[in-house]
Design goal:
By secondary structure, the protein is mainly α. It has six helices and two strands, in the order αααββααα.
Amino acid sequence: MQPSRKKQKSDTPLKDLSAAEWKVMNALWTIGQGALGEIHAATERHQDWSPETVKTLLRRLVAKGYVKTHRVGSSFLYRPNQSATSVLKKAGETLIGYAIDGTVAPLMAHIIKCGKLTRDELHELRELLEELGDEKSVELGVSSEE
């Protein structure tokens, strides 16, 4: 019998973020890393939170695996443990998982319309849609020349 393997944090899927946690993560992704005071200052532009509130949110984010800490003297430096892109992808997958049949396309259209996309991003989306359309045609046995 093999010894049971202790579950690593990387084996555990990340829990969803609350709206407040998203705001703290956005501040961290913007500044890269910082002490509580710096993160509080970065969130203060959008929220009227006390430093204790930000500290509580940071503690939750550390527990969830989104943030890492590094002790410097008597304080901590906080930095993102997950990239903004990977967290947004996970959130998108969760949202799509909630979609009812036939609602994914309107959902995606709404996201695209509300997003602040650059010309390059729009071009990339067009190419992706064309590529996916070609793949679907092949799966269905339909020639794109028909």
